[in-house]
Amino acid sequence: MGALQQVVDGLSAGSIYAALALALVLVHRATGVVNFAQGEMGVLMAYVAWSLTSAGVPVLVAVLAAMALSFPLGVATERFLIRRFHGQDGLVIVVVTVGLLILLNGIVGAIWGYVSKPFPSLFPNEVIRLGGVAVTVEQIGNLVVLLAVVAGLQIIFLRTRFGLSLRAVADNRESSALSGLAVNRLLMAGWGMAAALGTLAACLIAPKIFLDPSMMNAVLVYSLAAAVLGGLDSPVGAVVAALVIGVAENIAGAYIDIIGTDLKIAVPLLLMVVVLLGRPQGIFGRREVVRV
Amino acid sequence: MASAPGIDDKTILLGGSFPLSGALSANGQAALGGIKAFIDATNEAGGVRMSDGVIRRIEFKYYDDGYDPARVVQNFRKLVDQDQVFAYVGAFGTATNAAVMPLATRQEIPQVLLGTGASVFSADQKKNPWTIGWQPTYEQEGESFGKYLVSLNRTLKVGFLGQNDDLGDAYRNGLTEAIKGSRVSIVADVTYERTDTSLDSQISTLAGSHADVLFSAVAIPRLESAVLARMAQLGWAPMTYLPIMSNSATHVIKASGAVSFPEMFSGEFAKVPDNPIWAGDKAVQSYLADMKKYSPEADATIANAVWAYSAGDALVRALEGMKDLSRQDLMTSIHALDYDDAPMLLPDLAVNGSDSASPPIHELQVEKFIDNRWELIEDSEKN
Are B130 and B43 members of one domain? Predict the structure, then answer.
């Protein structure tokens, strides 16, 4: 019973990491940037959703509204901030997004304060017991929402013209522009979608870990590990890797004495090192080929 | 009379540093508000009558440190070198005060009545003669619940959950010390990191140990809430201890949204202003009135405000008890503090600065959560 419970807990933690990992992958896939502020943008909009629910709006409507509002936020971030640094060293953009993370963190704290707030769940607070293992409706719900999002993203990326254009722009901005693609609009759309997804992630996580300006910081570490492990351009890879990380971390923490709960946090990083040594592009990632 | 920097015929200049921005700003604001409220009330009542017969007002200078040890060190230097404060009083936090302690020792500046439960500030007063804490240490808190468990005179298996650092170790050491040689034993010992998003795995492990008691030393209120929520989901309900930092009836217990709760215990040394059991208490009423009047920006229901307010009282008593207005004399006077009528302190507890290995308040009372509020255990057992 104990081991099975640890697996269930791991899947639940993994689905939290996966939600943000998906947003990271989306931005990277669309614009080739790793956005360290992705989680914090989601936190900002989750606070907006919280304000709406406090005003009496049903939680589902509040979350959808916050996601809709996130889209222009993501678009504006790309248009007015990230684009100014286009063509510069990748590290510059990393620093810009880290700066944005710190700025948004301060803004959220200044507006809503630093006392963590309970966030209503999208799902009923019920527990299903299967032979001694407790599974909550929320855990199942989060996993289902995630899988639906991954399926949706796969369809968009692989089966639509829009997805193809997004991939083309990420792959080679100049060639895409020369081929007549509306590169700027596509970039903005990619950021907008990622922002909406980041907000969804924050709203799914918040009932579990409470709304707090810094709630996504630790999640970001795991999500980055998952995104890198799964391959930065693969939504499926990110989700699988996130679930694997969640389960591996818990099982190792509970059953390998030398790791214990003290070193649990090292497990995903260790996994990352091992996998990247063998497959630098990640488990599901596509090898980057550059023509010379 | 030649006096130390910061004291003239009209005023005593004191300083402190608090996290007024960042994640701990609500607590920092509360701690500052508490000590300021007591000082302002004292000034308004005339001031502090000192041994040379002069009545002086206290001026309190403070800076924001954002809970960043590097900024605290700058603030301390500024207070001592530029502002020329007489002493550094009531500063908030463990990491921040730890950064200041070596400087205080070297420069011989009193660093006193600190808002932290870490034992390091009071444990070795030979080595750090210029530093002393205020409230009971985390060891003492762990010990007081350990003693309570032993007093039940039953065989009890305890599961321990603590932060993977000095704070967790302090609780564990206190608890272990108290139950040594008794029928109470620790059967599972699990840690978490400050950065953990979920403690579900830890709770599953602890539940699997079939412990009768969970000592849940989780110092982050929202994580403690999540622990209670998870226990309800698993249907695991051992006797559960919540530490003083995470025992808020509103922000931890109610916020967890759990549908059922185990039998919950905690420790306390001060009156909690929004606990209904103190509704008619005179000390609580005048505390709330002072906070409203002098520190309206601080949340008076945050425990740090209460602790700092009572530290303000200790400060005034220590200043009154000084003989020759030197910094050394302030330390002597604090060590001579001995009284049992501190404002906001629980009725059976006392302040005593004479123990050279312990902060001036070094006892707690165990309380139990009954009918949606904390009740001191002696009282509830009498009922």
Answer: yes
Assess A164–B contact: CB distance below 8 Å, yes or no: no
Q: Examine residue B378 and state whether it is found in any structural domain, yes or no.
A: no
The answer to whether residue A155 neighbours chain B at the CB level (below 8 Å) is no
Domain total for chain B? 2
Q: A58 in contact with B at a CB cutoff of 8 Å?
A: no
pTM reported for the whole predicted model:
0.86
> Are B263 and B145 within one domain?
yes
Looking at the structure, do residues B305 and B323 belong to the same domain, yes or no?
yes
Which of B205, B250, B297, B302 is the best mutation test for A, with the most CBs of A within 10 A? Answer: B205
B contact set with A (CB within 8 A): 21-26, 164, 190-193, 195-198, 200-202, 204-205, 208, 221-223, 225-226, 233-235, 251, 255, 257, 259
Whole-angstrom distance, CA of residue B358 vs CA of residue B355 = 6
Distance, CA of B365 to CA of B145 (rounded, Å)? 9
From B30's Cα to the closest Cα of chain A, the distance in A is 13
Task: Return the domain boundaries, chain A.
Answer: 18-215
Question: Pairing between strand B156-163 and B184-192?
Answer: parallel
ipTM > 0.90, yes or no: no
- Specify the length of chain A in residues: 292
Tens place of pLDDT for every residue, chain A, 292 residues?
578 888 998 998 899 899 899 999 988 887 788 999 999 999 999 999 999 999 999 999 999 999 999 999 999 999 999 889 888 888 899 999 999 999 999 999 989 988 888 899 999 888 898 888 889 999 999 999 999 999 998 898 889 998 888 888 877 888 888 988 888 888 889 899 999 999 999 999 899 888 989 889 888 989 999 999 988 888 899 999 999 999 998 888 888 878 877 788 788 888 888 888 888 888 887 776 666 6
Residue A161 CB partners (closer than 8 Å, separation 6+):
none
From the list A5, A9, A125, the residue facing B259 with the nearest CB is A125
